[in-house]
Amino acid sequence: MSVAPTPPRSSCPGSSRASTPDSSTAKDVDGRDKPGHDRRRGWAWLKRGAIVSAVAVVVAVGGLFAYAVSLGPLPLDEARQTSVTVVDRHGKLLRAFAMADGRWRLPVDAATEVDPRYLKLLFAYEDKRFWSHHGVDPLAVGRAALQLVSHGRIVSGGSTITMQLARLMEPRRQRSLSAKLRQMVRAVELEQTLSKQQILDLYLALAPYGGNLEGIRAASIAYFGKEPKRLSLAEAALLVALPQSPEHRRLDRHPDVAREARDRVLARMVEDRVVSAEDAAQARAVPVLRQRKPMPILAPHSADQAVATDKESALIRLTLDAGMQRALETLARDRAAALGPEISIGIVAVDNASGEVLAHVGSADYFDDRRAGQVDMTRAVRSPGSTLKPFIYGLAFEDGFVHPESLIDDRPVRFGAYAPENFDMTFQGTVPIRKALQLSLNVPAISLLDRVGAARLTSRLKQAGTELVLPKDEVPGLAMGLGGVGVKLIDLVQLYSGLPRLGSVLPLREIASSGNDKRESLRLMDQVAAWQVGSVLLGTPPPENAARSQIAFKTGTSYGYRDAWSVGFDGRMTIGVWVGRPDGAPVPGMIGRVAAAPVLFDAFARSGHLRAPLPKAPRGTLVASNAKLPLPLRRFRPAGDLMQAGDDKALRIQFPLNGSRIDAVSEASIGALPVKVAGGVLPMTVMVNGLSVGELDGRRQRLIAPPGPGFVRLTVMDAAGAADTVVVRIQ
To answer: pLDDT digits over 106-161, tens only?
Structure first.
């Protein structure tokens, strides 16, 4: 009997003993996992890993964000604080003031104020990927970590320039992982807040260089005596090396250590092929200086005044020119030393067109106590001597009763109790007005002032921006023509700058304006009168050993030899010089022509500017010899000589009345403005604003074309030299 074979187990789904392979037991015929099942399990693990990683990243980012929040805001305001700096019109440093704690920290613009070669070395040595990373350089951090593990010590740091800036903003003495983490977080914040250029500028302003020096500008000035705009390779490498260990590498204490650090930077640059071996060898041969240089102090009086005026700005720009300022300070110091131990000198140079001060020397030596160096003598009130005479002559020209070629008497004369005398106690007799001013004769000047009026001269100078200081309870008098008032050198220069501007004075400016210039021109005198004064002063004989040039100038000496002055101008500049003792003590024999005029001519020569001619004569200027002048202009007669025997014969303008207002429209209907005169001796000349418009007829009247709207000065002079003047307003 045969036995039937056992049937195989059912694989039907409904069988309770069915064997369904799963992911944990499915095998192939060789007992290995099936490939499809293996892939599914791998994807599952990847998903789990991704989730875990994402959670970890989120937790880390959240933790870093929370950590960053816990650190508080970046201390940017404190980091941006710098020394108050005063610069010239071109941005060159004139003077810097140390911060309250004594540190020197100067602002810097890396794009324009730092040598590109230094920046190239800095990036190559400190942060090769500065322009591409976001505060932290992963490659640099990884390299530093690998070197730490392989060498067992720190070989190179992983800090970026941004991280170093973060450390400078929040200094930490200890070096730890937590401090490094803080720098990284702060670096990322800085990159999110500032541009790369701003980060670089801030780093270059804060980087330590030993002692109280912070920033590349302070270091370059203190160690090399120059701005970092142009550095040698040796200087650039040294400035790259110093911030690594600023106190240990201080040039004034450890120059050998500083030199070794510089040479290591150069060697590294050769390895990285940033510089050639030949250039590096030449740089290593350069010795390291062992002393710091003083911070520059140019125009100290101007800087002091500017800081006192502008107490908010950290950077103050003046209109001065650093080159001219340095040259004139040297000139003042050398000349004062030659004149005596207690003599000081003040110099002011002004651009005529803009009214901007180009140089301001307040004393011969700011640090010389014997010369009261810290007293700004350009702003001290002193007696001007004869320096106001040109303005007396200018008003006389404007009034039309004299011309530069008119004759005037220089002889003993008395004005009440006042009898002026010339400086040399002699008299020249009858001389042309031109020569009287060039020789600074006193009697002609006082005679003209008597006609012009001391009060009117004072008013006109005040109108031009100069306040004359009179003795207590005194009123303007004839003595002011010879220095009997007080004036400041800077105001006197402002007045003289109005002469090459043809009678228009622009108030001086020393602090550069960032907005619109709102200064308005002030009236000094008529154009023709200003040109005539300049033409006369241009012919003044120069001081001894000085070449005749295109400089119009005037000198002055105060009573008792206390003040010596000289003010001059050409078509471009006006320069004023004061010489004397700050305490007002007399200096026997010190006169303007000998003490001040040579300084003036040297100042023009050292200014660095080419001489410019004076303006041409304005239209309508009468240029003629004495013989061809109208008869009343040929000779000046003092006011007392103009009186006639009787009042009925005295010259008097009957119409228009002085101070009257005339409607130009109504006068236009008759085509002219009538001028009528009583008394006087024919022929009579009529002048409008100093210009001759013809002679009166036999009836002592004339019709003249009415000038434009505004104030008009009408003057009538007769054959005897008598004159009368009225001022009317055309409207």
So the answer is: 999 999 999 999 999 999 999 999 999 988 888 766 665 565 556 555 545 568 99
* Contact present, 106 and 91 (Cβ < 8 Å): no
Q: What is the pLDDT of residues 561-584, one digit of tens each?
A: 999 999 999 999 999 999 999 999
Main-chain dihedrals φ then ψ at residue 85, nearest 5 degrees: -120, 140
Q: Which of 159, 344, 386, 607 is labelled catalytic?
A: 386
Measured CA to CA, the distance from residue 627 to residue 634 in angstroms comes to: 7
Count CB-CB contacts under 10 A for residue 539: 13
pTM of the model: 0.79
Beta strand extents in 506-626 (DSSP E only): 522-523, 552-557, 563-569, 573-580
Which one is catalytic: 113, 126, 227, 235? 126
Do the Cβ atoms of 232 and 240 come closer than 8 Å?
A: no
* Structural domains of the chain ordered from first start: 109-201 (1.10.3810.10), 643-730 (2.60.40.10)
Residue range 10-23, pLDDT digits in tens: 444 444 444 444 44
**85: helix, strand or coil:** strand
How many Å separate Cα 52 from the centre of its chain?
Answer: 64
CA pair distance 209, 225, nearest whole angstrom: 15
Known active-site residue 126: yes
Amino acid at 442: N
